[in-house]
Structures are given as C-alpha cells and as structure tokens.
Design brief:
The complex is a heterodimer. By secondary structure, chain A is an alpha/beta fold. Chain A has 11 helices and 8 strands. In chain A, strands 1-2-3-4-5-6-7-8 form an 8-stranded parallel beta barrel, surrounded by 7 helices. In chain A, strand 3, helix 4 and strand 4 form a beta-alpha-beta unit. Chain B is 32% helix and 24% strand. Chain B contains 10 helices and 9 strands. Classes of the chains: A alpha/beta, B alpha/beta. Chains A and B meet through helix 5 and helix 6 of A and helix 8 of B.
Amino acid sequence: MRLCEQIARKKFIITAELFPPKGTDVTNLMSRADIIGPLVDGINVTDNQRASMRLGSIAVCRLLKEKGYEPILQMTCRDRNRIALQSDLLSAFVLGIENILILSGDHPAVGEYKDTKGVYDLDPVQLLTAARTLESGVDLAGKKLNGSPKFCLGAVVNPTAKPQELQLMMMQKKIKAGARFFQTQTVFDASEFRLFHDKVKGFNVKVFPGVTLIKSVQFMDFLSNLPGVSIPEPVKERIKKSGDPLKEGIQICAETIRELKTFADGVHIMAIGSEQLIPEILDKI
Amino acid sequence: MIITVTKPLPEILDALKDYKRVFVAGCAACATKCQTGSEEAVELIISELKKSGITVTGSAVLDTPCDVRVAKKDLSHSQEVKSSEAILVLACGAGVGAIEKSVDKPLVPGLNPVFVGTTERIGHYNEYCLVCGDCIAGKTGGICPVSRCAKGLVNGPCGGVIDGKCETDTGKDCVWVLILDKLKKTGREKDIIDNYFPPRRTAKPRQVSAEARKHR
C-alpha cells in the first residue's frame, strides 16, 4: 500500500533505508531489498549519501517499485539547481515514485569530493515549496505544466541537535511548506526522544525516529563522526563492554524500537549495510 | 576589503618560467592591509625571483591597482614595464583586471583572492559577506546566513548542528544559532519561522554605472 495511505491508517510505521552502490552492480542491493521489502512500509533510498558519488536514487527507487516495494526517494539540495531538482521530481513521479524525503544533504566538506561546489540553490524549505508548486500545476518560474505530479512529502529533523529550539522551528517551517511526515536523525535514547515527541505532538504530522544498528566498536566511532549524530555514553559503554558488539547492537536496536512502539508514530531503521539483520531486530521487539 | 593570500612560491615561479625579465606590481590598498601586496611583500618576492635567476626590471606599489585610471597612469608609460617580458601582480583579481587593460604584457597573478573580509584584528579576517547581490541580513539580525552557513541555507539550519557547532567544522559556530541569539535580544526569534525566503536571485549586475545606481 502507498506510504501516505499507510501513514493515515497504521499506528506504527516501519521504514528502513538502502544505500545505492558505488557502481552498477545492484545484485547485493536487490537481495537486501528482498529481505526487508516485505517487512517494512517504505524503503528510503539515499541520495549520494555522505556526499559520495553513488548510483542514482531515482533509478534504485524504480527498481524497488518494479519488485512491488514502496520506495521513498531521498532528495538533497546539495547537487542540483532548481531546474534539475524540479525536473527530477517530475521524473520520479512518472516512474511511479511519489514518496519524497527532502533534506539539505551532508556538506561536500564531509564527503569524498571536498573540492566540489555544493549547490544548495534551493534549501529544504524551498524544495518542499517547489514540490507543492509542481503539484499545483506550475513550476517555480510560474510556467504551466502539461500534467502535474502528486507527492507524499517528507522532511527530516534532528531531535538530538542542540539547540533543539531551532529544530522545532525548522519543523514548523517545513510543515508549513508541505511536509507530511518526518524521519529523524539517529536516536539512541527512546525516553529522551519521548520528550521531543511530546513537544511536537501538536504539530499534527507523523514523526518516525531513526534507529541505527551499531555493528562494532569501530563502526560506533565512525557513526560518532557523522554529521548530527550523538551517541549517549551508556550506549557506548554497553557496546565497548560487550563480548559480542553486534549482538549487543541488535539488542539495543530492538529495545529502542520496543520502547518507541509504546508512544511513537513509527521507526526508521538504518542498518547501514547490514539490512539482512533487520528481520532479527524486528523479531526481538 | 578584498582578502588575498599569497600563491605558493613554486606556483609563481612555474608561471614565470618562460620569462627572464619581470616587473612586480603591488597594491597599497587591500593587499597592503593583508600584507600580501605591500612594499615588504613586493621586496620579499623580488628577492625570491632574483634567487631563481629572474631579472626584476622594476616594481611599483600602486595606490589602487583595481582602478584602471591608476593602473594606466602608473604602468602604461613606464620604461621598466616596457622592458619586461611579464608582470607579476600582487593584487586581487580586480587589480589584475585593471592592469590587463593598461598594459599588453603577460600577467602572472601572485595572489589568490579569497573573500570580501571583515577585519577582526590585523591578519585575522572573516567572510561575513558573499557579495551575493541580494542582501537579506536585515531579516536575520544583521548576520548573513548566505556567507556564514556552510550550505548557505536562508530558511534556517540543517540537522548537522551539534552543540551549536557546524557539521563542517566543530570549531565554527552554526550561524543560525548566532541569528537565533541575536533575534532573541529584540524578541524577534519567531521571524525564523515566519519569514519564508523564496529561492534566491542569483543573477546580479556585473557592471554598475552611475545611471544604474540611481535606479537601484
């Protein structure tokens, strides 16, 4: 079923995320999709994640669609100007991709192409507005469209970013611009997220907190260095002290989701290359 | 002012490798303040050129090399310039552009212009303006997000801010945190939600005349 219909009727939405490969071999990606596709309500496809060059997210979304899965196209403002962004929104729609998650995108300075020009011709609020404008039958230049798209628009928020006040403001601004659902940066502490959840309950949008699988001590260090990620000390301790960090990571993930299930609108699982473990995580909830 | 940094010496020497006789032009305005095109900077590069076997025909620190009238007056009739094979310019690109209009010799820029800078103290400059042609700082507490947000986001911050610092540099304040604090001082923080900035006009005039100024 389409994501926006699910959002309207289901109590707890589960989404996960896949990274397009660097290269053209999609065998591994598609086998992961086959594992998680039947278990989740939507699969995010990242857009040149962490400012690295990858296979395009529109192409991968279409491949997922052909297998009967529900793709969520991540679209960053980093690599395209307003002409290309609008054009890609139309392209996505004609390929049957209607779920769009809009985000600014990790800065090139934290990626593989430090010398490239970050475009940011539109910011996320403007890109949401652009998508809504296309839905109304015109483009940003005010030109009439011959056939207009219909999207299920989402945006991102970081509940752990300080000051939180600004994140709450941005959420309201993105809602005003057309965001119907939010996926969040990684949350490791469900009770801390509950405080955030209570603050945004009145905004009348669905918020799916991000949960990340920590696979090893080394991976935890890598995660800590990603933009906007903060891992609480007790979680770090559990992973470090465990004889089997992967097992502990799965356990932490399951515990977090179990607690989120008691109050949140859903969860967005980021297994970062270990999507085959998502069934195990979901079994433990 | 225009902030410049000196190009690496090997790059300058490589650019001059085909020339035996070189004239050096400095800048008494911005590049002197930056100490990149000052009398001292000109002397320093002259000694390096000499070490590399280049004959320096002469030098001049122009008052404002970015002014075509000044560049023409100082350089176009100079015998020292005429006897040179190339001119090494220690000025920003505006200076290079004006000198290009004044002489027919090959030019070698010795500086990299980096930004329009605000001086904190001597030798310490910050980029607080991108010269974008469409100033919105009046609505953001006088703090420009176009230049000071790494992504140039005008409608508010991204989620990459950790403890008030930017995802690109943990030593750098997120400009939106500064804007929030500034707007709070006048009770206008809700402006961040209420002011929607439409896509920016990136087209700007590339030439300004007295006539155009009158109408702007």
